[in-house]
Amino acid sequence: MLQFVSNKGGGDPVDFETAILDGFASDGGLYVPESLPEVSIDMLNQWKDLSYQGLAFEILSLFIDSGTISELELKELLNKAYDSFEKDEVIPIYKLQSDNETYIMELFYGPTISFKDIGLAFLVNLFDFFLKRKNQNLSIIVATTGDTGPATASYIAGKSTLDAWVLYPKGLITEEQERQMTTLPHSNINPVGVFNCPEGGDDLDAVITKLYANIPFKNKVRLSSVNSINWGRIMMQTVHYFYGYLRLVDSVGEFINVAVPSGGFGNLCAGGLARKMGLPIKTFVIANNKNACLHRIFSNGLFSKESIHETVSSAIDILTPFNFWRFLYFCVEKDATKIKKWNDEFDKNGHIQFDKATFKSYSKGFISCSVSDAETLSTIKNTFEKNQYLLDPHGAVALSAVNKLKERLDDLKLLCLTTAHPAKFPKTIEKALSTNNLPESAFHPSIEHAKKLCQKGYTVDCKHLEDALIFTMEKYWEQTHNKNPII
Ligand SMILES: Cc1ncc(COP(=O)(O)O)c(C=O)c1O
User: Fold this and answer.
1) CA-closest candidate to residue 319, choices 351, 292, 287, 346
2) Residue 487: predicted pLDDT
3) DSSP 36
4) Ligand 1 and 291: CB distance under 6 A
């Protein structure tokens, strides 16, 4: 049976169920499978015509043994997870007319219209499945830059096994994203708007890390997370790389390039691991906005934290791409001692310069760049004018990066991941198209509906967030699960 270990080397190996339900490993590291399963060209050939759910079943079965979840249960979980997606194919692929061999992979047809729905649709159902079997409850806490929050809230809403605490940096996400979280009437959904976050969503991640380290509190409210610290998110996100690849190629074995708008490196970590498993991807284009931590890491080996820039692609205004540590583990022959040493050094100094050999080990097959707001806006405009196709700002960052790095890319088919629907970012779309008379494709019925609903939620200043959460979550837990009402 495949076991899961911390990428920092602490604690004992755990089984799949424990890795999922715990979120973080006991030493604060990220869970990784002890070994990565291999996918051969023969296997890819057999999977070529599978539906998204069918392919997900094959890939997930490489990580989950049938003693933990039977084949039938896994199939049911997957079918249920993607039932509510707008398109039968779950992830449609659109060929961009203006660019030869450029294909847009539309990852935003779930209920909250961003790619976060893809991982969370399955992961939240998986939590619910395990918890019902154990007759237990958990408090789920997540930090969001605008998309994880709505997806988490939407999937947890009304689930008797889970309560959600969804932290977002107030004023740094769009009004549409905020409404997606705050208009759900369910009593188990607790949105928390946090004022004064000088480092944006990174400030919220830092508080979650502290809450995890507070063992009495963690045990009391049975804390876990479905942020991409959770292995389940990464595992699930490997599937769309396989799916996109198999849809695109004429014959299996052919190489393609893939461009990804990136912040925390969760999506790209999944892509990088899919390639390590055997998926023929030649080059990944890492598309950063002005918050260019990944670009620094992949262009000159410097992992450094700088001040935040507010950009029009706000969901990737992320300073610390923590999933890079998970990917790096597999690039340095799973040497957890090195990962721990580098993590500690980064935590202490706020930067780390990797040596040449390490840089070479992780950067092969990746190219990166930092895209300005002006470039993002002009890509939205040009793509719309040439194709009548409306990109969201994050998809536009990816396509801008492809245009900037064209010279360094082999002449292969290119899959450009678009991670959100433009309806979440109307102000940016207005700016890009220089009009407030937006085309129909800039709207989505779910966003229009949310505009008509009342909002609820907490607000707190960032400096009081940790104390406020401890107090409020404990009281909530006592009242809800210990049947001990607040007086
Ligand atoms: C729309 C959108 N695109 C891209 C990303 C970046 O994904 P990751 O953090 O996994 O790199 C995010 C979230 O962080 C997002 O919400």
Assistant:
1) 292
2) 43
3) P
4) no
SS3 at position 275: helix
Q: In angstroms, how far is CA 354 from the centroid of its own chain?
A: 25
Domain ranges of the chain: 93-113+231-447
Is 116 designated active site?
yes
The strand pairing partners of 138, in sequence order, are: 162
Q: Read off the pLDDT band of 485 (50, 70, 90).
A: very low
The residue to mutate among 267, 311, 418, having the most atoms of ligand 1 within 8 angstroms of its beta carbon, is 267
Mean pLDDT, range 410-414, rounded to an integer: 97
Q: Which atom of ligand 1 is nearest to the CA of 264?
A: 9
Reported as a pLDDT band with limits 50, 70 and 90, residue 482 is confident
- Over residues 80-120, the pLDDT tens digits come to 999 999 999 999 999 999 888 999 999 999 999 999 999 99
CA dist., res. 154 & res. 423, Å (int): 17
Closest of 215, 213, 204, 165 to residue 188, by C-alpha: 165
Compute the distance from residue 106 Cα to the ligand 1 centre, in Å: 14
Of 238, 285, 37, nearest in space to 119 by CA:
238
- The widest CA-to-CA distance across the chain, in whole angstroms, is 68
Under 8 Å between Cβ of 477 and 221 = yes
Nearest Cα to 101, choosing from 282, 257, 279?
257
Given the DSSP bridges, would you call strands 189-195 and 256-261 parallel, antiparallel or unpaired?
Answer: unpaired
pLDDT for 374 beyond 70: yes
Identity of the residue numbered 98: S
What does the pLDDT read at residue 115?
98
272: its two tokens: 């990088």
Choice among 116, 170, 290, 431 that is catalytic: 116
Q: Does domain 93-113+231-447 have CATH number 3.40.50.1100?
A: yes
Mutate to test the pocket of ligand 1, among 108, 145, 204, 322 (most ligand atoms within 8 A of CB): 145
448-457: buried (b, 16+ CB within 10 Å) or exposed (e) per residue?
A: eebeeeeeeb
